[in-house]
Structures are given as structure tokens and as C-alpha cells.
Design brief:
5-stranded mixed β-sheet; single chain; Archaeosine Trna-guanine Transglycosylase, Chain: A, domain 4; binds S-adenosyl-L-homocysteine; 28% strand; alpha/beta; 9 helices; Rossmann fold; Transcription Regulator spoIIAA
Length: 377
């Protein structure tokens, strides 16, 4: 699906972001791709056939947008009106991310090709045509400056691509959250955890701890099931939104929000002999590349070891990794080693991944990144 720059022998100067035909060394047709003149990923395949011209490309992109929307209708269940509508390679639309937050869409382009005005315009048009019946008229563009630098795209700030709304209140499994498309760096929430939130809530009980809580995704799902919830994050702005989110969901035990480094806090709490019935660990990606895999695994192990030591008998550990470079196998081995060191024998209740609106495509390993294990003592 991808080819790296070192593998490409381009025959001519190719304009950034253009549609290219791809042939193997013997001249056989491999299909069509979108080209980046700067990224290490020089080409991302869009078809196993030759797409004749930009007009044909645009109609292919429009068709894939419709297909992506239809797929979400099949796989998004429960009381949720926020989910990923388009997941780049997962929807055969490489370089394009679109999330729905109730009445507002958040769109992000990651490549020169998807940032082209004609393609972005076609995507926005197709989305609005199909979704206006559901009351969606606004699209916010989200911008990641680092990605634009890598792709040599001109600097810009995010803003409205269509409509007038940039904020909304949305629901995940019936739990309410604020979205503001003009705030923060991310597209908004970690929608890939939506199904894991309800799985965690299903087993959660007693005294709970949510390390790396961000805007409260897990904590707010745990609160109705637990006698107390302590939620920790090092980001003050994230915790401020978390508290506003809590106010949207009254009627459960209060959550204690703590601004701290989760590594330090877990060490202190473990030393003090604190105990929990439910612990969630959902840290940021520690392995940004294959090179720091070992350091990353040491970080994951430290967290999981401390958590296992603090769990009461019958306790639940929900432990995640969103590092693509950490495989299921690596993560399981790390967990086994943490379990051995903690003198515990946790059982694997569930072996989970990203929600189905972030589809994993067979043969496209880049589309599979999130690991979520639910362990029980
Ligand atoms: N569980 C969250 C997503 C977590 S993302 C959800 O479902 O919404 C990772 C979070 O870890 C970010 O909010 C980031 O601010 C926080 N973080 C990063 N390093 C940290 C550290 N050392 N201690 C505590 N929080 C940290």
C-alpha cells in the first residue's frame, strides 16, 4: 500500500501531490498512487488499476467517502454520535481523517495530495451532501503543523471549511462530552477507545484509578459503576475540559482530578500502600519509532507492574498501548513479565483493539495500532 522514497525510481519530475501510475521494475502495472515529493512515504496506493486522470480520481474519492459513511452505519452501535468517519488507509483514502462530533465534522489532511483544493473540496462536498439530512452542515479543518512541515505544505491555521459551528456536545455510549474544533492540538477525543470505554465500564467496580485520563474518557465511563474515581493527567488544559465534561454527566460519584506525572504518582501511591479495584492505564505512544521500542517497553512495564501491585483481589486492569511499533506479542510479553514481578497471576478477560470505526485492513499493518487488554485478578 505504501512505497518508500528509497524504493522509488521516478522517471520524471513529478509535481507534489499528483496522481501517478506505478509500475514494477519490469514495467508491469501495479496500479495508481498519490505522490508526495518530500515524505519518506513517497507513494500511497489508491487503486490496483490505473486511474486515468484527476477527474477519475475525484469520482473514486467521492465513491470511497460514500462507502466509508455506509460502513459507519453498520458498525457504530449504542448511544454514540461521535466516531471516525474516514480513517485514511482504513478507508482506502490515504492521508485523510474525518471525525464526527455530533453536528460538527473535524477534517484533517496528512499528505500533499489530500490537501489539494480539488480533492479536499470534493471530500467536503460529498460529506455534506450525504450528511445534511442528519443536520450536519459544519466542517472544521484541524491542522497539525509538524505534518505540514514534513509534507512541505504552507503553514496555516485551522478554521471552518463549511458552515458556522465549531463546537458541540457529543455522546459516547450515552456519556456526554464537549468538543471544540478551535481548541487544542488533537482532532478532539480518542474516539478509537469508544468500545473499550464500555467494555471497561462493564467490569469496573469499587475504588478506581484512571492514569493518563486526558478529558476523562475512561473516568466518566467508570464513575457510574464505581464508589470513587481518581483521574490523573499531566495536562492542565485536558483536566479543565475533563471537569466540564463531568458537569455534563451529573448523578454519579464525584471524580477527583489530579494534575501529576502518572509515573511519580503511581510510585508514591504504591509506596503508601494504596489499593484499587479498577485501574486504567492509557498512556501516550511511548514508541514513536522502532528505535525506542526497548525504552518504551520498559516504560509500559513500570506502569503495569505498579498497577498490578496496587490491585485488590478480584481487581480489574484495563491496559492500553497506542504505539504502532509495539506489537500485540511485545505487549503481552511485557504484561507477562510485569505479572511475574508482581507475584500476581492475572487472567486475560478481553484482548481488544481500536473501535470498528477505525477499521483494520487485512494486509495493511499500519491500520492496526491500538492494543487494549482487560485483565482480572
Ligand atoms: N485515556 C484518554 C487518552 C489518553 S492520551 C482517553 O481515553 O481520552 C494520553 C494522555 O497522557 C494525554 O492526555 C497526556 O496529557 C497524558 N500524559 C502524557 N504523559 C503523562 C505523564 N507522564 N503523566 C500523566 N499524564 C501524562
Amino acid at each position: 500500500m505504501w512505497a518508500y522514497r528509497s524504493d522509488v525510481t521516478a522517471s520524471a519530475d513529478i509535481p507534489p501531490g499528483s496522481l501517478v501510475a506505478v509500475h514494477d521494475e519490469r514495467g508491469r502495472v501495479l496500479g495508481s498512487a498519490l505522490y508526495s515529493s518530500t515524505s519518506e512515504i513517497a507513494i500511497r496506493m489508491v487503486s490496483r488499476e490505473i486511474v486515468q486522470n484527476d477527474e477519475a480520481l475525484i469520482s473514486l474519492v467521492r465513491e470511497r467517502v460514500r462507502h466509508a459513511l455506509a460502513y459507519r452505519k453498520r458498525v457504530v452501535e449504542g448511544d454514540s454520535d461521535a466516531y471516525r468517519l474516514i480513517f485514511s488507509e482504513g478507508d482506502a483514502l490515504p492521508g485523510l481523517i474525518v471525525d464526527r462530533y455530533a453536528s460538527v465534522l473535524a477534517l484533517q489532511t496528512l499528505t500533499q495530495a489530500m490537501d489539494r483544493a480539488d480533492l479536499k473540496g470534493a471530500v467536503a462536498g460529498e460529506l455534506l451532501e450525504n450528511l445534511k439530512a442528519e443536520g450536519i452542515t459544519s466542517i472544521v479543518e484541524r491542522v497539525e503543523p509538524r505534518i505540514r512541515q514534513l509534507e512541505h505544505l504552507p503553514e496555516k491555521t485551522g478554521g471552518l471549511l463549511a458552515g458556522e459551528e465549531h463546537s458541540s456536545t457529543y455522546k459516547l455510549n450515552g456519556v456526554r462530552f464537549h468538543f471544540d474544533g478551535f481548541a487544542g492540538q488533537k482532532t478532539g477525543a480518542f474516539l478509537d477507545q469508544r468500545e473499550n470505554y464500555s467494555a471497561a465500564a462493564h467490569y469496573a467496580h469499587g475504588r478506581a484509578l484512571d492514569a493518563f485520563c486526558y478529558q476523562g474518557g475512561f473516568a466518566l465511563h467508570l464513575a457510574p459503576q464505581c464508589s470513587s474515581v481518581t483521574a490523573v493527567d499531566s495536562s492542565r488544559p485536558a483536566l479543565e475540559v475533563a471537569e466540564q465534561n463531568e458537569a455534563l454527566n451529573p448523578g454519579h460519584s464525584q471524580i477527583e482530578w489530579i494534575e501529576a506525572n502518572a509515573f511519580d504518582l503511581l510510585r508514591d501511591y504504591a509506596a503508601k500502600g494504596e489499593q484499587y479495584d479498577t485501574i486504567v492505564l492509557d498512556p501516550p505512544a511511548f514508541a514513536k519509532s522502532k528505535r525506542n521500542l526497548d525504552t518504551a517497553l520498559r516504560g509500559y512495564k513500570e506502569l503495569n507492574l505498579r498497577a498490578l501491585k496496587m490491585l485488590r483481589p478480584g481487581g480489574i486492569l484495563v491496559t492500553c498501548s497506542c504505539s504502532y511499533h509495539v506489537s500485540d506479542q511485545d505487549f503481552l510479553e511485557m504484561l507477562a513479565s510485569a505479572a511475574a514481578d508482581s507475584f500476581q497471576q492475572p487472567r486475560i478477560l478481553e484482548h481488544r483493539g481500536q473501535a470498528k470505526d477505525h477499521p483494520t485492513v487485512l494486509g495493511v499493518p499500519e491500520t492496526n495500532y491500538l492494543k487494549c487488554f482487560i485483565l482480572a485478578l
